[in-house]
Amino acid sequence: MTTVLLVDDQALLRLGFRLVIESEPDLEVVGEAADGRVALDQVAALAPDVVLMDIRMPGMDGIDATARIVANHPGSRVLVLTTFDVDDLAFAALRAGASGFLLKSARPDELLDAIRTVAAGTAVVAPRVLRRMLDLFASHLPAAGVVAADDGTDPRLGALTPRELEVLRLIAEGASNTEIAAELVVSQTTVKTHVGNVFAKLGARDRVQAVILAYECGLVGGDPPRR
């Protein structure tokens, strides 16, 4: 059973989400919250698998709440709700650690699929859409605060082998595992191994976090890091 916490300041929307989610035998809504602070208390008490998080709320917004949930409750994955598919606040929530975003206008089946996908550990955002968000909004957000090594290389890339670095670059460019395998002329099994190693070495939970980190390190979207 996948457990879900609903976080939205509009009670009517929470009711609608609850009705859709609880129509499925494998999903259960275990709690609700109307703002970020209550959401933090609910996550601590209920340990939901997925937090369906609105971004714009009074008091603590969804971005700050997402960052705290990801830092303190890694077992709970956050799926943020947004009005537009290219949204600076949605990107900020992804950068804070959310595993994906969903339009509020999404169909019920899309909502259910997104919840299941995030619960399974996969991101819910097309890499090419994320790159478009990065191109539009990343320069307006605070830097990650990582100090470069003496040679200018971002230290977060130091543990990667040359092949893993290439895999990360292709992930950041929006390539699927199938496309990466074709580009590097290796099997998809080999690609999956490389992707898993990249995630483990970077501490990335999924493709979304890997793409954002690659952008922050300058691997894509700017001058490439020196090796």
Textual characterization of the structure:
The chain has 10 helices and 5 strands. It has 227 residues and is of the alpha/beta class. It folds into 2 domains: 2-124, Response regulator (Rossmann fold, 3-Layer(aba) Sandwich); 139-216, Winged helix-like DNA-binding domain superfamily/Winged helix DNA-binding domain (Arc Repressor Mutant, subunit A), CATH 1.10.10.10. The radius of gyration is 18 Å and the shape is globular.
Attribute tags:
globular, alpha/beta, WalR-like, Rossmann fold, phosphoprotein, Arc Repressor Mutant, subunit A, transcription regulation
Strand-and-helix sequence, N→C?
EHEHEHEHEHHHHHH
How does the overall form come out from the CA principal axes?
Answer: globular
- How many beta strands in the DSSP annotation? 5
Quote the distance from N terminus to C terminus: 46 Å
Order of adjacent strands in the largest pleated sheet: 2-1-3-4-5
- CATH-defined superfamily of the largest domain: Response regulator
Strand content: 5-15%
Number of structurally distinct domains: 2
CATH architecture of the largest domain: 3-Layer(aba) Sandwich
The whole-number mean of residue pLDDT values reads 85
Derived from helix and strand composition plus strand pairing, the structural class reads alpha/beta
Main beta sheet strand tally, sense and closure: 5 strands, parallel
Number of helices: 10
Rg, rounded, reads 18 Å
GO molecular function: DNA binding
Pfam family, one: Response_reg
Keywords: DNA-binding, Phosphoprotein, Transcription, Transcription regulation
Protein name: Response regulator transcription factor
